[in-house]
Design goal:
This protein is of the alpha/beta class and about 160 residues long. Helix content is about 40%, strand content about 20%.
């Protein structure tokens, strides 16, 4: 990746989105590029997520607050100096992200590890972006805890 390259990253308030933003910021810093953090929102009248928005204006405001919080938290974690711009756009996440990345050099997404039922019913934004994007796509995984790590007591020696 050459100087002044654009990295678009999907931000959604999840741990996967946070990890994707961190990865994109690190990559942009290493390559002299910029990051465009994108939050997709849409109002369909159905409460399907963690937001309590009751109308499109509230939903957009929630998306703007999510973006502001993500960028502020990035600066808190990594310090100033990362060129990050933000965009809130209405539409299906995969459509919004691939449109935003149309002229980008890279699209970065976080994996969420949704359960099989949700994946089957709703599909996967990452998978759809991989199929639709006109640039390379990086999917940053969320680490899987070691089996039994939280439930087994520590061994004492």
């Amino acid at each position: 990746m050459n100087q002044n390259r654009l990295i678009v990253v999907g931000v959604d308030g999840s741990d996967g989105g946070r990890r994707a933003l961190d990865w994109a910021a690190d990559e942009a810093a290493a390559r002299g590029g910029t990051v465009q953090a994108v939050v997709a929102w849409r109002w369909d009248g159905i409460e399907a997520g963690p937001t309590t928005a009751t109308n499109p204006t509230d939903e957009r405001r929630h998306a703007e607050e999510l973006l502001d919080r993500a960028v502020t938290d990035l600066v808190r974690r990594q310090g100033p100096g990362h060129p990050v711009a933000g965009e809130v756009a209405e539409g299906r996440p995969a459509d919004v992200l691939t449109a935003a990345a149309r002229t980008a050099d890279l699209l970065v997404l976080g994996s969420h590890g949704h359960n099989r039922l949700r994946h089957t019913v709703l599909g996967s934004v990452s998978e759809e972006c991989v199929r639709k994007a006109s640039c390379p796509v990086v999917v940053v995984p969320v680490p899987v805890p070691a089996a039994g790590a939280a439930t087994e007591p520590a061994l004492r020696g």
